[in-house]
Amino acid sequence: MKRIRLEELPMVTSPRGPKIRKVLSTDDIVVANVVLGPGQVLPSHKTPVDVLFYVHSGSGYVIIGDEDIEVAAGDMVPSPKNIPHGLRAADEDDFSVLVIKTPNPYTVVGND
Fold first, then answer.
1. pTM of the full predicted structure?
2. 65-103: buried (b, 16+ CB within 10 Å) or exposed (e) per residue?
């Protein structure tokens, strides 16, 4: 059995701007922790696999297609593959989201 503590994982700044922690990666799933500062945005982009957003802490918005969904700690929002999605933190505090992709887009044959 393996226990993962988010706060102990290394964090890097992604090319899109937010801070990212790589949490887990197998052939079937990839999990990342995206952390946005107050008011920060992760621009909309498409993913060739289904995505589930789980709000770990803070509040903000999950953007899927043309919809902005207000969310807070404990909320989950699914996003179907190939639909543009992004994140936007509220102005008050950091926004920490677990981004769960299944299957792992980096192991799916035919995806770059």
1. 0.91
2. eeeeeebeeeeebebeeeeebbbbbbeeebbbbbbbbeb
